[in-house]
Amino acid sequence: MEKAMFAGGCFWCMVTPFEELPGIYGIESGYAGGSVENPTYEQVKTGTTGHYEVVQISFDPEVFPYARLLELFWPQIDPTDDGGQFQDRGSQYRTAVFYYNEAQRVAALASKEQVARSGRFEGPVVTEILPAPVFYRAEEYHQDYHKKNPKHYKEDREQSGRDEFIAKHW
Question: How far is Cα 5 from Cα 8, in angstroms, rounded to an integer?
């Protein structure tokens, strides 16, 4: 079992692309990369703690290779936007691939280069590839938010502009 960590804007929207796939055994929403230990959502959403909203994925690389996780990650984001994602603005909504080992680092850098060379985007790919920091699990009400609050999740996602961007660029 390995772990992968991705920041793709609002963590609610980053769960569904990875769930219910063979070899993926857990997806947790949380916070990473900031200066406050055990931050709360109220702290992180201010944009002053330095944390990213992230998902941490537990997976079996023999069943679901890390490269496949990267293939699923990139089409969920605007990799040229360093100010947040879609309607969610601020440093807590930046994008990043956090790696846990050298193999993940190499694969993440290669996938970023592939996205940059794809010709899909006018601007540079600014999504960072960084060592995995401490992961702090978000509050329980954020876990599987799309299942617990499907109406609000659907409305928020529709308003975000994420799906229109994905349809246009991916």
Answer: 10
